[in-house]
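Problem 12. The chain below contains 463 residues. Write out its predicted structure in token notation.
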Amino acid sequence: MALTRFALFNILLFCSCAASPPNFVLLFADDLGFGDLGCYGHPTSLTPNLDRLAAAGLRFTDFYCTSPVCSPSRASLLTGRYQTRSGIYPGVIYPGSIGGLPLNETTIAEVLKPLGYATAAVGKWHLGVGSNGMFLPTNQGFDQYLGIPYSHDMGPCRNLTCFPPDVKCFGLCDVAAKKKQPFFLYYPSHHTHYPQYAGPGAAGRTLRGPFGDALYEFDNTIGNLLATLEKTGVINNTLVFFTSDNGPELMRMSRGGNSGPLKCGKGTTYDGGMREPAIAFWPGTIQPGVTHEMASTLDILPTMASLAGAKLPQVILDGVDMTEILVNQGKSKRETMMFYPTDPSEMYGLFALRLGKYKAHFYTRGATHSGTTPDKDCPVFAVLKPHDPPLIFDLEADPSENYPLFLGGRPDLQALLERIKKVKEQFEATMVFGESQISKGTDPELEPCCNPQCSPKPTCCRC
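Solution.
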């Protein structure tokens, strides 16, 4: 969903002007690969505004999402908890899904609301609609929501216009501006999920075809947002954080994104499926630079809570505070990253685990989303394969996960293996799988419909 500068100005007026607590803008791309941005080395991507953020902010090289597909990754981003705890598995939520992100899960918006933050979500929710819209963002701490609640290749709203039906510039712009509330804006864009699209300002403007044009449109929207932050005088009191939900959908070939030097892409637990570009920008607070410290979408909730002075939810959190990385380019509190497949289960547990610079694969499997690549480990034909001992890679020396370390005759690696096994055992002992929300099935009556009284559903609902 592209936003005009006028629309962004109204959204931020709703969300306020200057205030002493920091404002937060969270930008979340869709199916964007580690190698897709100009500032991450792509030779033909046109991303001047994201490149500007990277040049003036902090660029991460080792930043991870928690799932190689959309819905579970978004659940973890907003709650600071692995998707297995909230039940957003296996796979993704559909327009008619009965389940959604459980209302007893606490989102970033709900953490900030008690401090007086105005909150808005714009774009792709993909965490459920439910009966009477019970799972929509407005029931998860967001004051306002503009967008469609699932991928733009799903359901009746494929033209991106029919939900919600009556947006009135949020209605409270002047009131909130006078109050000078701090704000949290969550912008989970539909770009660059397939099929890509771009408006007149971006279509045909890049050297990279439809994918590049869609990425450029997304970048233009980010430029409009930055201009609005400047115009409203709040940019120096605003943390802007950018990342993506999962890796590129390589089955779409040139229209599917690029994972750069990383192995495979969407749907897999190789780094190409879950290591993402990430940029933190906050003029005067975050100094320009690059960090190789490990961090995750899980860490965004505790970080924003810390910066705002908010209380953390009284549940097991998997995220850690990144403030030391952001403000001082210091060390990360995160020592490990856990990798679950798209269909996690207690029987198999973790597919992979990263400890420091080492990553151990206990199971490997390809995915339909990562088909068409020359790498035989990526497509769906690469069936589930257990590894005992696990395959261990040094990600600093071998980010492409091509050369597993030979453990024989290496006491240091044997000690590493024992430590990895212990960390895995300790983590899995704390993991209580929540009831699967996606396994509850679907009901066509729940799917948002452009013609609510029509029959038969959902075929009559096409916009």
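Discussion. The longest helix spans residues 209-231. Students who got a different answer should revisit the alignment rule from Section 12.3.
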